[in-house]
Each structure stands twice: as structure tokens, then as C-alpha cells.
Amino acid sequence: MKDNLSTPNGKPLRQIKSFAKRIGRITKSQKFAIENYWDDYGIEFSNSHLLFKEIFLNNNPVVLEIGFGMGDSLIKMAKENPKINYLGVEVHTPGIGNLLLKAHLEKLNNIKVIEHDAVEVLALMIEDNSLAGMQVFFPDPWHKSRHHKRRLIQEKFINLVSNKIIKTGFLHIATDWQHYAEQVLHVLLEAKHFKNKYDGYSPRPASRPFTKFEKRGKRLDHGVWDIFFIRQ
Questions:
Q1: How confident is the model at residue 159, as a pLDDT?
Q2: What is the CATH number of the domain that holds 226?
Q3: What is the pLDDT of residue 215?
Q4: Which residue, 99, 88, 90, is CA-closest to 19?
Q5: Measured between alpha carbons, how far is 85 from 49 in angstroms, rounded to an integer?
Q6: For 84-138, how does the pLDDT look when each residue is reduced to its tens digit (9 = 90+)?
Q7: What is the mean pLDDT of the chain?
Q8: Which of 92, 111, 127, 228 suits a disulfide with 49, CB 3.0-4.6 Å?
Q9: Known catalytic residue at 140
Q10: What is the biggest distance separating any 2 CA atoms in the chain, rounded to whole angstroms?
Q11: Within 10 A of 23 (CB to CB), how many other CB atoms are there?
Q12: Rounded to whole angstroms, how far apart are CA atoms 160 and 82?
């Protein structure tokens, strides 16, 4: 992130990254999808607000997902909810390729992807009061104490998010790290623009598909905590 990067109102963006860029091994099919389907589903990062009606060619509500991994659950949600537009933000190249390939195979027209830092995307590309909801499933827990400052869900981030989600819109976070879940719940309970839909943690919503991370967590006997708040 450049030192002089700031939000449209002039406030500087945070410098600490909440993710580690992992290129990983990219398959031939993923590489092919990036080279051939990016123009259909990809949106280049810029410092100007997106016009969702022009991007999706409709006025359907838009849900943003941060860190969709390999994209399987996001594809499933887009397929099952054709009247909702999904915007995914990810920095994992193989995951982006996998999502592009499956979006093409499923002939989906309600999904788009941005390859960039989610904080910058929110600050610079997403207009205030434009999102019907936001979801963050199994973010990097940065489990070592000295790395907790890198966790995505912090007070400043939630303040930014609160400006982007419409009133009555939702923020849904899921994690398989109890300490992170406790931190997220604490941060959101302190946020004046969000209200918990439940008393504590949320029951597992049927709308959230099982991800490989959740399946891995269950194999390791980890719990999974869903947190579901409504924008006031």
C-alpha cells in the first residue's frame, strides 16, 4: 500500500496487511480461466466507485465476500440465489482462477471478482450505503499473539464496513478459531451501527455452504462460530 493512499474523505488507510499474498500452485485450467474469462467476471482495481447497476446490468442487491478462497462456496451461493449479485474480493491467484472457471461452466451472471486488498477496495471502490450485506468466512486467524494486529476484524475496519452496508443489511463472519470469534463478537458488540441478530453467537445459517476450511476444522475437532449482525 502506498504511504499516501487515503479514503475519498482524506483519511489515510491502515498500513498493516491482514493477509499474506500466497500465489500457490496454479493449474493449467485455472491459468486458462484467468486468461480467458477475466474479462467476463473480473473487475480491475481503481480509486473510483463501482456502479453496480452497470456492472451487473440490474438493480439486484449486492453482497460482498472478502477472502473467498477457492471460491466453491461463493459459486454455490451465486447459483442458488440468482436474484442476488455477489462481489468477491481475493488475493489468492489459484482461487481466483478456480472461481472464474466454475462461474463460466455454470454460466453465472451474478458474480464478479476483484483481485486486491479488501480494505482498499472497500475504501476506494465501494460507495457508501450500497451493499446489502458482507460476509467473511474463515479469515486468516493470525493465531500468534504478536500477529493479532493483522487480523482483519478490528474497530477501524468495522467502522469502514458500517459506512458501506445499507441499514437492515447484514455482516456475517464465520471462524473456526475461538479466540478470534471472541474478538469479533467483542468488536461488533462495541460497534454503534451494528446490532446482534442473536444472543451471542449465531446458529449455523443454512445459507452458508460448507467450506474446505470448515471441513478441515471439524476433522481437527475445532468448533465453528458464526457471528451475524444487522446494520442499524
A1: 97
A2: 3.40.50.150
A3: 77
A4: 90
A5: 17
A6: 999 999 999 999 999 999 999 999 999 999 999 999 999 999 999 999 999 999 9
A7: 89
A8: 127
A9: yes
A10: 47
A11: 9
A12: 28
Residue found by looking up cell 463472519 in the block: 173
Q: Which listed residue (39, 40, 72, 140) is catalytic?
A: 140
Q: Is residue 63 part of a domain?
A: yes
| Three-state DSSP state, 127 | coil
* pLDDT given at position 212: 72
pLDDT tens for residues 5-63? 455 455 555 455 545 555 568 999 999 999 999 999 999 999 999 999 999 999 999 99
Question: Is residue 21 domain-resident?
Answer: no
In a domain, 36, yes or no: no
Cα separation, 94 vs 32, whole angstroms: 11
Contacts of 197 (CB under 8 A, 6+ apart): 170, 228, 229, 230
Q: Around 61, how many Cα atoms within 13 Å sit in the side-chain half-sphere?
A: 15
How far apart CA 104 and CA 227 sit, in angstroms, is 31
Full domain range(s) for residue 139: 57-231
The pLDDT of residue 57 is 98
Number of domains in the chain: 1
Under a CB-based contact definition with an 8 Å cutoff, are residues 151 and 139 in contact?
Answer: yes
- Bridging pattern class, strands 131-137 and 62-66: parallel
DSSP code string of 82-112: TTSEEEEEE--HHHHHHHHHHHHHHT-SSEE
Residue 37 falls within a domain, yes or no?
no
pLDDT in tens, 173-197: 999 889 999 999 999 999 999 999 9
Instruction: Enter the C-alpha cell of residue 159.
Output: 467502522
Residue 159: phi and psi, rounded to 5, are: -60, -40
Cβ(117)–Cβ(19) under 8 Å? yes
